[in-house]
Structure formats: C-alpha cells, structure tokens
Amino acid sequence: MSIEYTPWPTDLAQRYREKGYWQDKPLTCLLEEQLATNSNGIALADGKRSVSYQQLSQYSSNLAASLAQKGLKQHDTALIQLPNCIEFYISYFALLKLGIAPVCALFNHQKTELQSYCEILQPTLIIASSMHELFNDDQFTHKLFNRFNCLSTVIVDHHKGNSELKQAYLLDQQFNAPALNPSDVAFFQLSGGSTGTPKLIPRTHNDYLYSVVASAEICQLDGETRYLCALPAPHNFPLSSPGALGVFHVGGSVVLAADPSPTSCFSLIEHYQITHTALVPPALQLWLSHAAQAGYDLTSLKLIQVGGAKLSISVAEQVEPILGCQLQQVFGMAEGLVNYTRHDDDIWSVINTQGKPISPDDEIKIVDEQGNDVPSGTVGRLLTRGPYTFRGYYKSPLHNADAFDDEGFYSSGDLVKQLPSGHLVVEGRDKDQINRGGEKIAAEEVENLLLGHDDIAHVAIVSMPDSTLGEKSCAFIVLQENPTTKLSALVLRKYLRQLGIADFKVPDKFQFVAALPLTAVGKVNKKALRATFEQQ
Ligand code: AMP
Ligand code: DBH
User: What InterPro entries does UniProt report for this protein, alphabetically (predicted)?
Assistant: First the structure.
C-alpha cells in the first residue's frame, strides 16, 4: 500500500500537470538523465574522494539490490542519519529507487529526535554512521530494535575501512527496479516546527522534482556549476533550492564540506573553483569577517544564496564588496514555498527583500489575525498553496486543522509583506513575537536596529516571563571581537532611543553572551534562550 498523504484536489492536480509543473517522472530521473549524456561527469566530491554520475547511479542501484535481498520493499519507510558525505546521496537514491520513503535526520540530532521520527514513521530500516556518538557501539541500535518491532535492518557506515554500507554499494549486482508512481511520497522532509513533537512533511516525486527543476533554472545552474554543500545535506535548502538535486539535474558537481565555517569551506572553494553555495546568515557573517585575512582565492564564486533566517540589510550590503560575488536571498520552507531574488532584480530588491515565489501558480494570501486579506503592502500572516507546497503533515490531523485554512492554504507562521513587484519581505514570525502587556514587539525589528551598531556581531531578542505584563523582552548580545566602545544596557537603550523607536520596543533586559545557541541548521535557537529564564 502506498504511503498516505493529503493529496492536492483533483482540479489543481490537473492544472499542475497541464502547465507542465508535474512531469510524472520519479526523482530518480535526475540520475538517469545524466547517465545518458554525462556519465563520466563528477557528481560528488568531498575533498578526498569523488564519484561520477555513473558511479553514483551504480552504487545506489547496488545498495538498493542488497536492501531488496534483505526483504526491504517498496512503500516501506526508513531513517537516514549521515553527515555530509557521498554515502548520504548514495543511500538517498538507493531508497528512492526501491520506493522506500526515508526521513533524513540532521547529523546533530540526538536520541530524542531519532526516536520520535521512528515513532511517527515506524521505519523498517535505519542507515546511520558510527561517526555519530549514538552509533559508535551497539547500545542504541539494540534499544531501537527492542522498542520498534517494525525495524528489521540497521546499517551503520563505519566511514573508515570496510563498512557494511560500503560493501553493499560497491558490490556490483543486478537490481530489478520496481515501477515508481510519481504521485507517491518520495521521502519526508523535517519541519522546523513550532509544536512539541516534530512533524514530518511528505514530499511527492512530482512536487519535489518541480521545485528542483524550476529552482535550477532560476539560479542559472549549468553543467559547469560547482556547488559547495556546506549546510546539512538533508536540509531542504541545500537539497532542493536548487541544492544538490538541482546540480544533478544540470550535470554539475556537488562538493561536500563538513560544515559552513570558513575553515572547512575556503580551501574547498579555492581547490574546486566553487561557483555557487548556500549559507544561513550567521555563516555568511563568518565568511565576511574572515574572507580578507584567510588568504584563499575565492574569486571563482559567482553566487552566494542566503536563507533560512532573515538576513540583515547591513550584512547583505557587504556580500558583493567583500566576497566579490552576487547575493541571492532565499526564503523557503521544508513545507514547500520557496522565494528567490532573481539575477535581473535591481540591487535594492536583492538587498532588501527575500525574493518572489518560484512558480506563477504559487498562491499567496497575506492575512490579519482574523484571517482577512490585508491591504496590499501591509504586513500580515503568510498563507500559501501551490504545486510544491504540501497539503498536510504526516499523520497529524489535529495540527493540520490549525496549520491549513479551509481552502488548503498552509499558514507558515511568518509575518510578511508583498511589494508591488511581487517580492516578499519577511518582517517576523507570529511565534517570534513578544506580547508586552498587549503591546506587540516584532523581535527582528529591534534586532536589526541593534545589528546596525558597529560593535554588535549577533543579537537575539526573546520573551521572558513577567508577573505584571505577562512578558517582557530580553536581548542577548554577542559583541564584535574588538569593540570600539564599552557597551552597556544604558548605552544600548540610549542608542535605540536615538534611532527613534517606541519605548516599549526597547528591550527590558540586555544580557551579554559569548555566542548564541544555534539549532541544527545554524539558526539562532530562541527556545534555548527562553529556557534560561525558566531555570532561574
Ligand atoms: P523550516 O521550518 O526549518 O523549514 O524553516 C522555514 C522557516 O524559516 C520559514 O517559515 C521562515 O520562518 C524561516 N526562513 C527561511 N528563510 C528565510 C529568510 N530568507 N528570511 C527570513 N526567514 C526565513
Ligand atoms: O529555512 C528553510 O527551511 C529554507 C530556507 C531556504 C528552505 O526550506 C529552503 C530555502 O528551501
């Protein structure tokens, strides 16, 4: 039986086919098409090894054949947890070829996350790495086998030496591929989420392939593209916007970095003459501050995409002058909708907006708290539906009732405005708001003002409980390495008041810290910051 998901209504599905968005091809066509014309082209490299398209295709078929021999079959589910490595893509395509839908955990996920994915998905298979502390002995694996009866196979890649995973994919053998239905769930994306338990996002072959192919075109990828994947490989951004899959679509090469730090990335950029990459804003800031003195040749870079969190205007302005390449802002979500600034956008739009949707059939509603459309150009809650935006979290009927309106529009939790040009500007999240006794503060608005101060490197503002007002605001501040003035709460309050903002927006508390905690993909982890108040 196919894996369940909430389908698109038939009239919309028909429109998406008629317009050519849904091609009724499985995601595995990305490799097959390269085999015909570009089989010796380098698909993947990681600094030590590289594999051609022919090898990537052969290895993933070999692994699929070996999994089939173990009794794994179409419509099963799986959990993959691998670092940024060639084996991630071999495993991903092996499962797609077999019609097994994986969820790909981030490498820094720990047992709580992995167990809850297993809980939701009831996988028959886990592919993991002994580089992760949970899998460097058998304890956790045994626990999983005991707890999840569904589980039949756990394959741990030992990374060095002769692992079971390598043995399987290096052994050339006949693979009898099942027929895949492009309307089926191909795999599950992870939601950043706002609820206690993680939510899984079913992505079909048809909808995901469309987002990949259209993104590759928007970003002008071609066979000469050398893309550095520095963010966690399974994340929607480096996987599909246009990410590694977009690069495979055009026959370019993906180079894998362990992480987005300048130390990990700059030498790879020089060595492989990287043309494109994707970063989150904190990583971009590191690149900007290390580019000059690092002594690497970064001139091959043509485009740096930045997304995942709001990029401040002052940082956006530095990209071209310091890194000598074009900036593209990307506002996307694993649930679907992705917006890009375009190559031919004016510089103002590139610096000041988060781009416009991929598809002419991405429908955007911007509504107020009552769900009514706001006047054009006004900030409101973003609702969207379209040819690659999902229709429901996996097995989450209650949450889905909240997350979708009755026309099937998904509510992303973002506060945005749309300019006459169609570009969206992200102004905050309705979850990321401080309600100060009835007065609302958009945290990002105040953060951006503080970021304009030369001595501040990073800032995050979160709510803290207050017995009178319900909530107050606290700004966690990370100073630049060599501040020119001695900053204090007093100085910063004065600075903000001088900029002319409402008094209630001035943070009630400033806390100076060495670094902000980050989530798995490198966003500021506000939940962790809020938790510091609960412990007091
Ligand atoms: P996730 O749920 O992890 O897929 O994260 C998606 C969310 O990240 C979006 O709904 C936005 O809140 C945020 N996001 C992604 N890209 C941007 C961006 N360029 N600017 C502001 N927020 C962003
Ligand atoms: O933050 C995201 O989830 C994101 C950002 C940029 C994303 O999913 C994407 C591009 O596809």
Answer: AMP-bd_C, AMP-bd_C_sf, AMP-binding_CS, AMP-dep_synth/lig_dom, ANL_N_sf, ATP-dep_AMP-bd_enzyme, DHB_AMP_lig
pLDDT at 433 over 90: no
pTM of the shown model: 0.86
For the domain made up of 226-429, give the CATH fold: Rossmann fold (3.40.50)
- Give the residue, out of 414, 416, 519, 521, with the most ligand 1 atoms within 8 A of its beta carbon, to mutate for a pocket test: 414
> Which ligand is the nearest neighbour of the Cα of 211?
2
User: Is 308's C-beta closer than 6 angstroms to any atom of ligand 2?
Assistant: yes
Domain with CATH 3.40.50.12780 in the chain: 226-429
232 touches ligand 2 (CB under 6 Å): no
Q: Can you give the pLDDT at residue 435?
A: 67
Going by their DSSP bridges, the two strands 50-52 and 42-45 should be labelled as antiparallel
Which stretches within 362-435 are classed as H helix?
Answer: 397-403
Residues 144-163 as b/e (b if ≥16 CB within 10 A, e otherwise) read: beeebeebebbbbbebeeeb
- Averaged pLDDT for residues 234-263: 97
Per DSSP bridges, beta strands 326-333 and 303-307 are parallel
CATH of domain 439-534: 3.30.300.30
